[in-house]
Design goal:
Two copies of one chain form a homodimer. With about 300 residues, chain A is of the alpha/beta class. The first copy, chain A, has twelve helices and 13 strands. Chain A starts with a strand and ends in a 12-residue tail after the last helix. The mean pLDDT of chain A is about 95.
Chain lengths: ~300, ~300
């Protein structure tokens, strides 16, 4: 099996209440790739400038991510984002967004990338997501992420992209913006009317919900002692989630999707413990498996019968 | 076994995006009592004015709540609260708080109420909570709730009350206000340094966490199609939680506390579906049990082994 991800590759500058970094490797496709690399061969498709150097490639290669489809734009600069997290880390303010080479990004997939069994369309222009999805005609499981910007200014194109995938991954405020529905399940079902058979609603520090046509499933965030930097947590979650489906041959049965929620949750919890990719870059499969088992333990209860009056 | 609750009995006026009520039965001790009544004999201790009539007593008696220790202040008026929930129902604005007879409330417990095996101190002045706790010397499990006001203006008295109970129930913003800790587990452990062996952190629409000295346990809110009115959800949760412990003879073992989290979650989910006490007043034990089983199902996953790379 193989897994292709298309999306942003970036340098991030981040300040949180616990410190900061002036320039660190980031971008949705990077965080996703590192997380998914525990499950399958991962090909990453995205643009970089000639400021993207050996050190950055080394992080990806350290997890055996296949970088052949990273498009290097000579004379260009890599996408740069800087932001500051507020005291409670529930919100962040963007200081600067320099799209640079990302502004004119038109994904070019090698035959190997097109042949992927599983595809993840990270948050890019919806029209490009649809274009890529069509190029990967044989993919058995395709998921996409998006953002408030596209819901606001490119809604029709986003609906077209959503209609062409199996699973949509958004956070709860995006679902509410998209549908006007405040309840997670009701909002997810409205989005699924466009075609997808599953939807993941990310709840930030509170975990995530999986919604299928007639069921839902809930996991809390894995509790950590300390959150250094939430940047990339959602993409790490997606990498673990989609990666787990890929490891099961693209099988999107309820049992696999639920397990995938647990793997996504576990990897995201490591991501936030340090800045950027720092923690996930040296993560081990054993550490991930331990947290999945632990997540199961801290959510399980015996439905002992109480005789109610 | 028997269970005593001390706290507010009120009339509430509420507006939510889905409607409103001008005057409905409410108050922490009322919501708690109705929820706990499914598990044990419940005695409610709290003050009312002579505007508290047969209709209000009928709601409590309809669930067999023992109202002998409701103190009726002749010529007094019952505590009145009015509030408006904002569009997303994540926050509410208080329009009016008339403490009325609640302002000078000094709990007087009958011998039967003092003999309770399990005691819940709903949100009242911390010094009164401690006073009541001392009167119920033989209680094997005592829990308390509080609020931001007491954390801000009566911290020492609140610490003294906390030191005298087995379990503290607060929401996550109160825990952060109390401890300065943003992470749920770290914050709860700081509060538990004052003595309690367990703490419940309510996460509103996202569920709740149980924190013990060396473990944690997490449940999502039970997903409902429609939230009419969140008023009393936290007290209904507490009633189901503490009630379940009472049904187990005050046993606060991990297995019982986890199950109690599930019962609290189930009853709270009914509470929010209609205004005030309307839904819980006609709830059945079978409906509660069904949601507990369903909650278990929508949070359980098989920890199938994925061979990670």
């Amino acid at each position: 099996m193989s897994l292709t991800v298309v999306g942003s590759i970036a340098f991030d500058a981040v300040q949180t209440p616990h410190g900061g970094r002036e320039r660190m490797l980031g971008g949705a496709a990077v965080h996703f790739s590192l997380a998914a690399s525990f499950f399958d061969d991962v090909r990453v498709v995205g643009p970089v400038g000639d400021d993207f150097g050996d050190g950055e490639y080394a992080v990806l290669h350290g997890r055996n991510v296949i970088t052949d489809d990273i498009e290097r734009v000579e004379g260009g600069k890599t996408f740069f984002w800087s932001g500051v997290y507020r005291e409670n880390m529930n919100a962040r303010d963007t200081l600067e967004t320099d799209l640079n080479v990302f502004e004119t990004f038109d994904p070019k997939l090698s035959q190997e990338s097109k042949d992927a069994d599983v595809l993840f369309l990270a948050n890019i222009l919806p029209a490009l997501q649809l274009n890529v999805r069509k190029q990967c005609a044989q993919a058995t499981f395709v998921a996409l992420d998006s953002m408030d910007l596209w819901i606001n200014i490119a809604r029709d194109a986003l609906v077209a992209a959503i209609s062409a995938v199996d699973c949509v991954i958004l956070n709860d405020s995006e679902v509410e913006l998209f549908t006007g529905e405040r309840e997670v399940v009701a909002g997810a079902r409205k989005i699924m009317e466009h075609g997808p058979k599953a939807m993941v609603v990310k709840l930030g520090r509170y975990g995530a919900a999986l919604v299928t046509p007639d069921d839902s499933f809930w996991v809390p965030a894995f509790p950590v002692d300390f959150v250094a930097d939430p940047t990339g947590a959602g993409d790490s979650f997606a990498g673990g989630f989609v990666g787990c489906v890929a490891a099961h041959g693209g099988d999107a049965s309820p049992a696999v999707l639920k397990l995938a929620m647990a793997y996504g949750t576990a990897i995201a919890s490591f991501n936030v413990e340090e800045f950027g990719t720092e923690r996930v870059a040296r993560l081990t499969g054993e550490e991930i498996s331990d947290r999945v088992r632990e997540l199961r333990r801290i959510t399980a209860f015996e439905a002992d019968v109480v005789a109610l009056r």
